[in-house]
Amino acid sequence: MKTDIIVIGAGPVGLFTVFEAGILGLNCTLIDNLDKPGGQCAELYPEKPIFDIPGVPYQTGQEHVDALLKQIKPFDYKLHLNQRVEQIEQKNNGWLVTTNAGKQFESLNVFIAAGAGAFEPIKPNINTDISQLEDKQVHYSVKDKKAYEGKKVLVFGGGDSALDWSIELEKIASEVTLIHRRDAFRGAPDTEMKVRDLAAKKKINLLTPHIIKDVELDSLGELGEVILYNSDTKKDITLSADNILFFYGLNKKLGPLLDWGLENNGKKIEVDTECYETNKQGIFAVGDINNYPGKLNLILSGFHETTLAVQKAFKRIYPEERVPFGYTTSNTTIHERLGIKSD
Prior knowledge:
Blueprint lengths: L4 E4 L3 H11 L5 E4 L7 H5 L5 E2 L8 E2 H11 L5 E4 L4 E7 L2 E6 L4 E4 L1 E4 L5 E4 L16 E2 L12 E5 L3 H10 L5 E5 L9 H12 L4 E3 L2 E8 L5 E8 L4 E5 L3 E4 L3 E4 L15 E2 L12 E3 L4 E2 L7 H19 L14 H7 L5
Parallel strand pairs: 1-2, 1-9, 2-5, 9-21, 11-18, 12-13, 12-18, 13-14, 20-22
Antiparallel strand pairs: 3-4, 6-7, 7-8, 10-19, 15-16, 16-17
Helix pairs in contact: 1-3, 1-6, 4-5
């Protein structure tokens, strides 16, 4: 599959790359290891407030992602989720990108917008191997909340995801139990208050301070009893459930990035601030994944970086042409690409 720009990472900076490319008439293909676009904002901090987006006094992480998706809706882009880029190799004057799903993409330009690296869910530290239950009765994110309708659900965690989904699933599940290792949460205070109010009204079960000790499998290899340990009473309790949701957060790993021959400091990729290109021509690093003197890990910094990088990407595709700069307020070509009707 050929495209003008391959974007590794579908977080805010990756999504904004689609916009900057689109107004120049370029198309993008985005690849992300998660099951939805939005990166950390959608996966870790959907309800976390953001106050430093220019012109937007207040947005939650998910509202910001939704706004970016709406902004790039007019443009031609492809989104490939649940895939991790394993290899980048040179092909002709450009690059061939291969994912762990065996898909290959070819482009003159590759933008690494992977935030702090690839995300992988943190799994419970228990003796029983529950991998055969994953995506069946054990989950690390909610893909379709209808799957929990009428079910007994155990939710583990103390952040926004655990709190938010406990509230949401209470509306459709037969029983929701939220389990956390301490009686304090790190999610939004108003959300925590809602959870505690639901617990006081006996609409959800709130178990603190409890940790998971192990999971038993039944004779069919399906989910059996779940064993918890109460750190106050020093006693075990057992629960039954149809589904378990673990919201322990995500591991951030550079992973294969370190094998691509890109200059890095072990945590971030070094770039030239003229266009945020790496030491490999045609491979750019934008957003939190890059490093340069004065670097700030802010979304708005990533927007600036990818804007300049897209200009260079255009020149690589059309070396004989001038980059078509125009103001979005008045440029008729940009308006046409955005689907805006001129008076």
